[in-house]
Amino acid sequence: RAFQTWVSAALPGGSVKWTGDGIDARCPVGNQFRVAKGNPVRGKHKVTVRKSGKQLIVDTGVIRCAVNTLGKTVFESITRGRKVIAKDARFIGQRQSAAEIVVGEPLIVSNFQAFIQTAKIEQDGPVRATIKLDGVHQDDQGKQWLPFSLRLYFYAGGDSVKISHTFIYDGDENKDFIRAMGLRFDVPQHDVTYNRHVRFVGEGKGLWGESPHGLTGLRRDPGESVRKAQVAGLETPKISTWDKRVSQRLQYIPVWNDYTLSQLSANGFTLKKRTKAGHAWIDADQGHRASGVAYVGGTKGGVLFGMRDFWQLHPTQIDIRHAGTPVAEATLWMWSPEAPAMDLRFYHDGMGMDTYPKQLEGLEITYEDYEPGFGSPQGIARTSEITLFALDATPSREKTIELADAIRNNGQIIASPQTYLNAGVFGGLWSLPSRKNPIAASIEDRLQWSINYYANQVEQRHWYGFWN
């Protein structure tokens, strides 16, 4: 099979310790496989990167992405065949001047947007391509802050782009509060409204979906074949075949343009929709832990997108806007604008510990070693992982769940423990579990108990959240 490998870590003597390995996106590997020396193989597809002015054009053989090397737009377009599936991707956010509203005191909210300053081709194929973009976020007043790095990953034969977004906090925690941060992109609509579809993946195989222009649940029935096609995400029969009591009154069926799924805690999400701005939101559903995966598009193409660890990194949100217009807009919020602003101030004022003797006294009663400046958020960072699939049709409900699994449960390749032990990559201070005598068995039992206890504490104490 076509295979690309690179060195990701070396030992002091120069020998290879770890490698990264890539295969064709359409190449199944199964639950077990072996890597061995062999003759080079040419895959069916090849990913290429070429420069074109201020853009890098990445072609996987299935999709083509025009990545910008400067400015506010990450990529100008993703095309499949001759059709634009997504365009104008940009990272956006809001800055707030205070943590919360205090009556009588000013509260200023300003927008900011990522500005790309440099671009680097880290890998250019033939199996995997990686582009690194660096820059800063800039607000309406020209303030530059929150330096960031983006990595865009593409695979031969793939119809997706994975985006790794890392930002560093360098603001003033007393007046620079992040109110929102997310990725926004546009999705041109190629279908009539009733052949378009919006879908959200909940927990497990849970799926909420409808057309912005629904043909089910009406007083008059357009016909079973029409209803079934729309529910399945397929193109409906020609409108001339519908019951005329529906086809002649299509303009009176509401078009739902806007949708929002909000996950503001680890234990609950809400889903709402509205026809358009200026009208009320309607509660559509609720649930426990959303997968953070959605689809917007139609039978002639659209985008399925999502964020890894969506509910775990709450408060998060997905917005779909203008689904019934020629160009829909999707936003995946890494920090939801419906949540309180991000508050990175330290949790106490020093409590008088302004000398070393006082700080030592404080350490005698609490486990925390405190000195002025120890509670600063300067330099902390967060990485979020987002994936966009540029599809040529609305995926089936089963395919939607399959793609959601690829986003929320990234496959991870590991060798057997014996292989790691034999290779010595973790040193010689460990061994495989052994119960060769009562003492060894007791040690193994205690070690397993400790691992299980602390793993379970994550859920029991809800150690989830953007910074937790």
Descriptive overview:
- By secondary structure, the chain is mostly beta strands.
- 14% of the residues lie in helices and 39% in strands.
- The strands form 2 sheets. The protein has a 20-stranded antiparallel beta sheet that branches. It has a two-stranded antiparallel sheet with strand order 1-2.
Give a short synopsis of this structure:
With 468 residues, the chain is mainly beta. The chain is 14% helix and 39% strand. Strand 3 (48-52) and strand 4 (55-59) form a beta hairpin.
Search tags:
22 strands; 6 helices; 468 residues; globular
Write the layout of secondary structure elements.
Layout: E1 3-10, E2 16-23, E3 48-52, E4 55-59, E5 63-68, E6 75-80, E7 83-96, E8 109-124, E9 128-139, E10 144-155, E11 160-168, E12 177-188, E13 196-201, E14 207-210, H1 224-232, H2 244-247, E15 258-265, E16 268-274, E17 282-287, E18 293-298, E19 301-307, E20 316-321, E21 327-335, H3 356-365, E22 381-391, H4 397-408, H5 417-423, H6 438-460
Antiparallel strand pairs: 1-2, 3-4, 4-5, 5-6, 6-7, 7-8, 7-12, 8-9, 9-10, 10-11, 11-22, 12-21, 13-14, 13-18, 15-16, 15-20, 16-17, 18-19, 19-22, 20-21
Gap between N and C termini, in Å? 41 Å
Largest sheet: 20 strands, antiparallel
Give the class from helix and strand content and strand pairing: mainly beta
- Low-confidence residue ranges: none
Q: Count all strands and give the number.
A: 22
Cα-atom radius of gyration? 26 Å
What's the overall average pLDDT, rounded?
94
User: Total helix count?
Assistant: 6
What order do the helices and strands follow? EEEEEEEEEEEEEEHHEEEEEEEHEHHH
The geometry reads as: globular
